[in-house]
Amino acid sequence: MNAKKVKILFMISIAFLMIFLLPFHPLFGMQKVRLGYLQSDLHQLAVFVALEKGLFQQEGIDITIGGIFKAGPEEMTAFASGELDIGYVGEAPATVAVANKVADVKIIAQVNLEGSAIMVRKGSGIKSLKDLVGKTVAVPGYAQVQDFLLRKALTQVDIHIKSVNVIIIKPPEMIPALSTKQINGFVAWEPYPSKAITKGIGEVLMYSGEIWPKHPCCVIVVDSQFLQNYPDIIRRVLRVHVKATNFIKENFEEASKIGTRYTGMDLETVKLAMRHILYKYIPDKEGLLEYVTFLNKLSIIKIEESGEFVKKIIDENPLKCILKIK
């Protein structure tokens, strides 16, 4: 082969590399990943750690914040309109969105377990669940995990949900509403329960772990088409998530300071809140099955076979791949 042909083949090889390989190398830029998460939600501390410590960049991921949302349903609407690739979101809105064919996503990892509480106004005289009868209690949304926790808690003491005036208020507005006596209590995720405590406004009636031990809460979801097209990127994202989750467990003090920066809450509140959140990355299939069964019973979703639905919505393969689990 003469020198001219060798040169041509060399140039073709270089062109091939530039077209197919270099876009995925951090030095040359790569497929952008549009990430969403919930505003001031300490459950999602792992993503705050990942952003703060530059873990996405270390994995060669070009992260763009596609949205910071006040509630899970808003985030799922963004998935439905094609604005997000990956999101940290509550398991409840993700489940409802998929079941009702609003969005096509897969759960690829757990983010946390527990981390919510039923709160009442300090000095209100409400000391037990039975004292909530006839009272007004706020939840972030119907069919969300906090709504389920309230219903489950009341059922455990033979109180019908209709005996309580349940209304919807977004968590950032719950503490002011409690303070001005617009509501008697609320159910919310951390750090809002802890903030009500440190402000001297609220007190805990029950932590969610007392109602439903180790219940699932937030998860990572990915657009199904993105998962199919970019499996390597998803594995990199999961490596970041595992590193960030382990960092939280091993570096409580530093992780809590990161939590203050991303939630706007004071350090005392964040530390108190973190003690009631379990940061995990293995999906809780049994917990999701219980929740799907509950949603089905209320006709919020209509699933013929809950077990099959759980198998379809959770894709454990990418996480198993990086953890080397068969």
Helices and strands in order:
Layout: H1 3-20, E1 32-38, H2 45-52, H3 55-58, E2 62-69, H4 72-80, E3 86-90, H5 91-99, E4 105-110, E5 112-114, E6 116-121, E7 136-139, H6 145-156, E8 165-168, H7 171-179, E9 185-189, H8 192-198, E10 202-207, H9 208-211, E11 218-223, H10 224-229, H11 231-250, H12 252-263, H13 267-274, E12 277-279, H14 285-297, H15 306-313, H16 317-323
Parallel strand pairs: 1-2, 1-3, 7-8, 7-9
Antiparallel strand pairs: 3-11, 4-11, 5-12, 6-9, 6-10
Explain what the structure shows:
Mean pLDDT is 91; it is low at 6-10 and 14-28. The chain contains 16 helices and twelve strands. Helix 6 links the parallel strand 7 (136-139) and strand 8 (165-168). Helix 2 packs across helix 12 (252-263). A five-stranded mixed sheet has the order 2-1-3-11-4. Strands 8-7-9-6-10 form a five-stranded mixed sheet, with helices on both faces. A two-stranded antiparallel ribbon has the order 5-12. The chain has two domains: 23-114 and 217-323, Periplasmic binding protein-like II (D-Maltodextrin-Binding Protein, domain 2), CATH 3.40.190; 116-211, Periplasmic binding protein-like II (D-Maltodextrin-Binding Protein, domain 2), CATH 3.40.190.10. 48% of the residues are buried. It has helices at 3-20, 45-52, 55-58, 72-80, 91-99, 145-156, 171-179, 192-198, 208-211, 224-229, 231-250, 252-263, 267-274, 285-297, 306-313, 317-323; strands at residues 32-38, 62-69, 86-90, 105-110, 112-114, 116-121, 136-139, 165-168, 185-189, 202-207, 218-223, 277-279. It is an alpha/beta fold.
